[in-house]
Write a structure and sequence with these properties.
mainly alpha, 2 helices
Length: about 55
């Protein structure tokens, strides 16, 4: 069974703000970081044990 991952509005804003900040200095790196994070999150849906939960 796949893990359901929910993003709340605050999380989305923080993520968008971080990508916008990185983009100020390097648009290419901003896209790279964005897709690496999104890919890691997507991977958690099928393999939730891959990373330890926050404590």
């Amino acid at each position: 069974m796949a893990l359901i991952i929910k993003w709340n509005n605050k999380t989305i804003k923080h993520f968008d703000d971080a990508i916008k900040y990185i983009r100020l200095f390097s648009p290419a790196n901003a896209e790279k970081v964005k897709w690496e994070i999104l890919s890691a999150i997507e991977g958690l849906r099928e393999h939730p044990q891959k990373y330890n939960p926050d404590k």
